[in-house]
Structures are given as structure tokens and as C-alpha cells.
Write a structure and sequence with these properties.
The complex is a heterodimer of chains A (384) and B (387). By secondary structure, chain A is α/β, with parallel strands linked by helices. In chain A, 36% of the residues lie in helices and 19% in strands. Chain A is built from 15 helices and eleven strands. In chain A, strand 10 and strand 11 form a beta hairpin. In chain A, helix 13 packs across helix 14. Chain B folds into two domains: 141 residues, Peroxisomal Thiolase, Chain A, domain 1 (3-Layer(aba) Sandwich); 217 residues, Thiolase/Chalcone synthase (Peroxisomal Thiolase, Chain A, domain 1), CATH 3.40.47. Chain B is built from 15 helices and ten strands. In chain B, the strands form two sheets. An eight-stranded mixed beta sheet of chain B has the order 2-3-6-1-7-10-9-8. A two-stranded antiparallel ribbon of chain B has the order 4-5. The longest helix of chain B has 17 residues. Chain B is globular. The two termini of chain B are 14 Å apart. The chains are: A alpha/beta (384), B alpha+beta (387). Chains A and B meet through strand 3, helix 5, helix 6, strand 8 and helix 11 of A and helix 2, helix 3, helix 5, strand 7 and helix 11 of B.
Chain lengths: 384, 387
């Protein structure tokens, strides 16, 4: 990165299947209050700019950031909204700091999936001239991707199930997680089939919640905390939209994004150098596929990696020590919550799920059909 | 100190009310192709691609991803912004951040809307809070009518002055081949139009159009190689206000976000006489009273002076301070590109490439504004030189 951008503090709500007692703005208010307190700053006087992240369709509201200036104290300030995954909002916040335009930025994201039927929204994101009328949603298209992945590389549903067992097990140690369980591979394989080979347990549950963080220049971050986390590298990339234009068993866009992020961060051997990864697996097979895209193993070897046990909480390179998206995180918040988890790990604040001595972490956000767009952030522990 | 950012390519489609034979992908492809041709670049020279519009107008979710084949985003970085009426100017600012941050040297930004695919007013109505004021809200016109009445009461502006501003816009749009409504109107024609919500009649409101605008931004070192006529983004500011903050309550309904944006830009750039030091203003002017009242709020003139300048003809193409020589938002309004068109048209004025609607005075610095959301403002200052 041209200059250091520091993450001073991060906050999340507890994620729950529904939060009918909270207005969407109240979700943002909760995390804003928490993050401002954690950073020890004044919302009114210190925050120069707010980058929010939400989706009009999920909120059922044109300009879903309408209530954000209220609850983030952004009256007569700079506020802007990223309409995509939360990881992009962190990247955009970092651009605000890097440009020299703002010294301290509040980044927030929210989503309440329980308010609506997500399959309809997913269908509305699919090309309306050729494919939308087929009735595709993300689960059906994910099934095709998983099937293609199995056919091309011989990955098995048992290996997908191992991801669920690992992540739901890790979630038991995460007080913010919505769902956690001690499962066996058989429990997952025997659960209700949604779209072969994806069972109900292979899919991220419906979830409500919010996430926030404070970004600042190096100088200010050092003043505010003795545990700053530096954004060391970033990369993002789009895949083609039409599924027929892509090799679904490989993830070219993620490879491009991670290579760029690693190049900026000066990472040559990701497996050796990175201490932990928080990635966005909307479906269990995606964790295996994304580990390939992130360069943690060769193409087609994601299944072998989970078999090796290296990605377990106590393994060589823990993946999703928080429990990941399978433990319940809403879309939009997903990528930002990955960054927040990685920040807590690097600050040594991850409690029971702490990866000992974590110095370098990767956070990943994605969105769209079969992971059409990816954003990778490399984070480094600052301070002593 | 940030990296300097220049506009090096501009492309826009024709605008109209209905083009059933053109889909959204084709629409943005048209704008992108024109912008790349204007910059004399090919897609492989572009490092990142951003696309924005308002999701609920067409009903497409994540359409930056959906349209990546047509925007050129496939295999490249980028993400979507979505902030209501300001989305077009916000995209320009997003492009600025991409380059000013030092992470990119070139980027392509695209703003578009296709209002013929869905009614705008029901979608705009959902900007309000579902549990508080949505039952009382019908589109954008209520708040704008309130503010128009307040402006008339406060300053002595008459309906005729708004009609003059609209008639002037029609003369400008008649010279702009890309504008949507290009019929010429006299002040009396405007006054005779069907009333929608007092004091705004049909001609005094913005239409719903379809169209797209694309722009290429570059860092200083690249810009000088790409074009001999770079237009520099000298400064920009975003001011958002609390929901409902300007619309409700008694007393003066002045546009606090416009006021703050104007004073910030003028102060930071040591501009004491905006009508002299900037030569043209492409204003996001969605209703006829916007021109006189917002000139005052931005600090272009004193309070109560706006309508007098309109009366004097100062805002005409050949006038003392031309406002929206392209015809502005009252003649062309595809919301996702309305804001970006302001930036693009202001840049064309600086380049001297605006064709028939080029203003007569020499343009060294120009202003472009965006408006939307809960009475939000983006304001950009463009310049011919880097000093």
C-alpha cells in the first residue's frame, strides 16, 4: 500500500436468525456505539467521513443509507454507500485515508435477511435477458458449481461436510455466532437436501446483524491504540456473469484479487506467511474452492487441504476460526465481519477462538452468483 | 497530499423517454465505447471499472456484476456505489479516490438509468422510513414544492422567474443533441403547462429519461500521455444531512448541505467571487426553482439575488454566469447518470468541446453538483490547469 492505513477498532452485533425488535438503523447504532467506545473517540468530533454498506433490495428501501447519517452522527459530513459486500466498504474507507482526504473514517454495514425472501433477490441479480426466467437462485447455481467442482477435481460431499463440522465447531467458541454445533460428517450428509449436493447444513443460515470499524492514518491509529492493525495489501476482481462464460470449478477472479493483494503486501509464500484466514463461504464447498483461489493450495486440492487438518483451529493455517458464514452472518455484512474477525485475532482479542501469535491475516469478501466478485485484504498486526 | 486526478475520456448516449429496442447492457456499452474512443484508449488500458445506478428503478440487484460483460468490468477490479440522486457525482468521486489513493492509474466509471423499465415515483417513495413517514410520501415532488413556496415567500421570487429558468433550459437543451426534452419553450409556454403540485407544473419538474454516461479518469503521469486536454478534478466535497433534516419543520428551508458544500469548496480554493473565478456551473437542477434558490445556497450570489439574475438573463449560454448549458436535469434525467452528466458536461465546457452548447465566455474553472437522498450534496470543482 502507498501508505499505512490502520484499523483502530472493530465491532459486531451478535448475529441472530431474526432481530424483529431492532430497526435497521438501530443495528447500525449498536455497532457504531460499540466501535466508537472501543476506539476511544468522539463520533461527533473525530469521525470525518462515513462509508456505509447495504443493499436496497435487502432493505426494501431505495437509498438504503438514508438513515445512516442520523445514527452515525454524519449530519453535514461526508457519507457514501457501497452497494456490494462489506469488504469493499473497508477498501473504499482505506482509499479515503490513502488519498489524504480524511484522517479518520467510520465504516459500517448492516443487513436483516429475515425481512425478506432472499431467493427472490438473488434471482433479481441474474441477467434478465437470458437467464432470470429460468428461476435460478444462488443455491441452485451453487449446486451446479459444486457439481462441476466434484466432476473436475474429484472433491467429495464428505469433504464439503468436513467444512461444516469444522466451522460449526469453531463457532462454539464465538459468542457472536448465531449457530454452533458439535456435528459429525454423517449429520451433515443426512440433513435435508436442497439442491444436490448442497444440503441445508451446507448453506449459510438466514441471519441479521451489523458490523463497524474505525480506519485511520498511521499517525492517528498509533495515537489511539497500542494494537493497530495495518491494511497491508488489497485486491479485488469481477468474474464474468454468465455461468457458461466461466470455468466454475476454478476461481480466476479470486486468484487475480489475491495475487494483487499479496504482491502489494509482499507475500511470496501465502501458506507459510499467513497465520489465519477468514473467508466468505456462503456454501461449504466454497471454502475449499476459495482456499485454492487464495493460493493456499493448488487448483483442485481444496479437498485434500481440509482432509489434512491444516485448516482446523489448531492447524498450520486456521481457516474461519470464527465459524465463518456457515455459523450465520448476513450478506453485505459478510466480508466486513471477516475483516473484523481478523482484526480481533491480530489484536489478540478473539477469546477462546484466538490463534496464538497471529501476525498476518487474510480477510475475504465475495458476492454475486457463484462468487462472481471477490475482495481480498491482507492485514498485519501493529504495535508490540 | 494526494495524487492529481484528470478526466481524460467522456462518453454519453443519446437520452430519451423510451427505447424498447435497447437493453441496459447495450446502453452502457454505447457510453463505454464512446468514452474509450474519446480517450483513444482500449479496455486493456483500463485498470478498474465502476458502475452505479439505483437498484429499485429497474429492479436489478448487484447489476454491476450482472452487466460486467457490457461495462468491461470482467476480469478487472471495481465495485458499485449507490447513493440516490448523487450516485453519478459519487461515482466520479469514487473514481477520484481510486486514483488519488495511489492504488490505480486509470479507471472507468459508468452511471446509467433506464427509467422506462419501471415507474420512478413508487421507487423514490421507498426512500422514506417504512415505520414513520412512508404513508405520507409520494416521490420527490412534495419536498421540492415546499421548498419552492418557501423560496417565493422569503425572497419575492415569482412563478414567472421559475418559468424563465425553465425556458432558458429548453433553449440550451435544443442545442444539445444528447438531451431528452429538446422542444423550445417561452416563459408563457411553461406557465401554461399542466399543474402537478403547486407551484411546480409539469415542465418545471424533471422528466424520467434513459441513458448512460461513462468517464475515464487517470493519474497525472498517465493523463499527460493520454490527452492534450486533461480536465483536472481540483476539489470535491460530499455533504450528507440527517434524514428529513431539511424537509420538515417551520422556518427557512434553505439547503444546508448545498450551503456547506459551496462554502467549503470556495474557502479551500480561495475563491472569493465564484461568478468570476468559476465560469460555468452544471447544476443538478431537478425543478425550476432550483436554479435561482440553489445559486443562493451554494453561495454563487447573495440571498434574494438568484431570481434577479435569472430575470437579467445571466444564466443563459451567453450570459454572465451560465447555469447548466447542457439543458440540465429538467431536460434530461436518467437518475444514475444525471449527476455524472453534470461532471462530464462541465469538463466538456472546459475542453471547449461542448459543440453548439459551448458557452461564450472562456471556461477555466467549472462547478458540477449532485443532489439526492435526504437532501444531500456533492460538489466538484474542475479546472483547466493544475495550479
Amino acid at each position: 500500500m502507498p501508505d499505512r492505513v490502520g484499523i483502530v477498532a472493530a465491532a459486531m452485533t451478535k448475529f441472530e436468525a431474526a432481530k424483529p425488535w431492532q430497526h435497521l438503523a438501530e443495528l447500525v447504532l449498536e455497532v457504531t456505539d460499540k466501535v466508537v467506545e472501543a476506539a476511544g473517540i468522539s463520533l461527533q468530533n473525530d469521525v470525518e467521513s462515513v462509508v456505509s454498506c447495504s443493499q436496497d433490495h435487502w432493505d426494501g428501501r431505495t437509498i438504503s443509507s438514508m438513515p445512516i447519517p442520523d445514527v452515525t452522527c454524519a449530519h453535514l459530513k461526508d457519507e457514501s454507500k457501497v452497494a456490494g459486500d462489506g469488504a469493499y466498504a473497508v477498501l473504499y474507507g482505506a482509499m479515503h485515508v490513502l488519498s489524504g482526504d480524511h484522517k479518520l473514517v467510520l465504516v459500517v454495514s448492516h443487513c436483516a435477511e429475515s425481512h425478506t425472501d432472499g431467493t427472490i433477490i438473488e434471482n433479481w441479480s441474474i441477467d434478465h435477458v437470458f437467464n432470470r426466467m429460468l428461476g435460478l437462485d444462488y443455491t441452485m447455481s451453487a449446486a451446479m458449481q459444486a457439481r462441476r467442482y466434484m466432476d473436475k477435481y474429484g472433491v467429495t460431499p464428505e469433504q464439503f461436510a468436513k467444512v461444516v463440522v469444522k466451522n460449526k465447531g469453531n463457532a462454539k467458541k464465538n459468542p457472536y455466532a448465531q449457530e454452533s454445533a458439535a456435528l459429525s460428517v454423517n449429520d451433515v450428509l443426512k440433513s435435508k437436501m436442497l439442491a444436490d449436493p448442497i444440503t441445508v447444513m451446507d448453506k449459510k443460515p438466514v441471519s441479521d446483524g451489523a458490523c463497524a470499524m474505525i480506519l485511520a492514518t498511521e499517525e492517528i491509529a498509533k495515537k489511539l491504540t497500542d494494537k493497530p492493525v495495518w491494511i497491508k495489501g488489497a485486491g479485488n476482481c469481477y468474474n464474468p456473469h454468465f455461468l457458461g462464460d466461466r470455468e466454475l470449478a476454478d476461481c480466476d477472479a479470486l486468484e487475480s484479487a489475491s495475487k494483487k493483494a499479496y504482491k502489494i503486501a509482499g507475500i511470496k509464500n501465502p501458506v507459510k506467511e499467513i497465520d489465519l484466514v477468514e473467508l466468505s463461504e456462503y456454501y461449504s464447498y466454497q471454502e475449499l474452492l476459495w482456499t485454492e483461489g487464495l493460493g493456499l493450495c493448488k487448483r483442485g486440492e481444496g479437498g485434500k487441504l481440509i482432509d489434512s487438518g491444516k485448516t482446523q483451529l489448531k492447524g498450520e493455517i486456521p481457516i474461519n476460526p470464527s465459524g465463518g458464514l456457515l455459523s450465520g452472518i448476513p450478506v453485505t455484512v459478510a466480508g466486513m465481519s471477516r475483516v473484523a474477525e481478523a482484526v480481533w485475532q491480530l489484536q489478540g482479542r478473539a477469546g477462546e477462538r484466538q490463534v496464538p501469535g497471529a501476525k498476518l491475516a487474510v480477510a475475504h469478501g465475495c458476492g454475486g452468483i457463484c462468487g462472481q466478485m471477490h475482495c481480498v485484504l491482507v492485514l498485519e498486526k501493529g504495535g508490540k | 497530499m494526494h495524487n492529481r486526478v484528470a478526466i481524460v475520456g467522456i462518453g454519453q448516449t443519446m437520452h430519451s423517454g423510451r427505447r424498447p429496442y435497447v437493453n441496459d447492457g447495450e446502453l452502457i456499452y454505447d457510453a463505454v465505447t464512446k468514452a474509450l474512443a474519446d480517450a483513444n484508449l482500449s479496455l486493456k488500458d483500463i485498470e478498474s471499472v465502476m458502475l452505479g445506478n439505483m437498484d429499485l428503478f429497474e429492479g436489478h440487484h448487484l447489476n454491476d456484476a450482472m452487466l460486467s460483460l457490457y461495462s468491461g468490468a470482467m476480469g478487472k477490479p471495481g465495485f458499485k456505489m449507490n447513493t440516490g440522486g448523487t450516485v453519478g457525482t459519487m461515482l466520479a468521486i469514487q473514481g477520484w479516490y481510486h486514483i488519488a489513493s495511489g492504488l490505480f492509474d486509470t479507471c472507468l466509471v459508468i452511471g446509467w438509468e433506464k427509467h422506462d423499465e419501471g415507474p420512478a415515483t413508487p421507487a423514490i417513495t421507498t426512500i422514506t422510513d417504512p415505520s414513520v413517514d412512508r404513508p405520507f410520501m409520494v416521490g420527490a415532488i412534495g419536498g421540492l414544492a415546499t421548498i419552492s413556496i418557501d423560496y417565493m415567500n422569503r425572497t419575492g421570487c415569482k412563478l414567472e422567474h421559475a418559468a424563465m429558468a425553465r425556458a432558458n433550459a429548453s433553449l440550451n437543451a435544443a442545442r444539445n443533441p444528447n438531451a431528452h426534452l429538446r422542444d423550445k419553450y417561452s416563459m408563457q409556454d411553461v406557465l401554461n403547462a399542466r399543474m402537478v403540485l403547486y407551484p411546480l407544473n409539469l415542465l418545471m419538474c424533471c422528466p424520467t429519461s434513459l441513458g448512460a454516461c461513462a468517464m475515464v479518469f487517470a493519474s497525472e503521469s498517465k493523463a499527460r500521455k493520454i490527452t492534450r486536454k486533461p480536465v483536472w478534478i481540483k476539489d470535491h466535497v460530499t455533504v450528507h444531512v440527517e434524514y428529513g433534516g431539511a424537509q420538515f419543520g417551520v422556518g427557512e428551508k434553505r439547503w444546508t448541505s448545498h450551503m456547506q458544500a459551496g462554502s467549503t469548496i470556495f474557502k479551500r480554493n480561495h475563491i472569493t467571487n465564484p461568478r468570476k473565478e468559476t465560469q460555468v456551473f452544471e447544476m443538478y437542477d431537478p425543478f425550476a426553482f432550483a436554479i435561482p434558490s440553489w445559486m443562493e445556497d451554494f453561495g454563487i450570489c447573495d440571498t434574494g439575488e438568484g431570481w434577479k439574475l435569472v430575470e437579467k438573463g445571466a444564466i443563459a449560454l451567453e450570459g454572465e454566469y451560465p447555469i447548466s448549458p447542457s439543458g440540465g436535469v429538467m431536460c434530461t434525467n436518467a437518475i444514475g447518470d444525471s449527476g455524472m452528466l453534470r461532471v462530464a458536461e462541465a469538463a466538456l465546457q472546459i475542453r471547449g468541446d461542448a459543440g453548439e452548447h459551448q458557452v461564450t465566455r472562456e471556461v477555466k474553472q467549472a462547478l458540477a453538483s449532485g443532489f439526492g437522498g435526504s437532501y444531500w450534496t456533492d460538489l466538484l470543482l474542475l479546472s483547466k490547469t493544475t495550479d
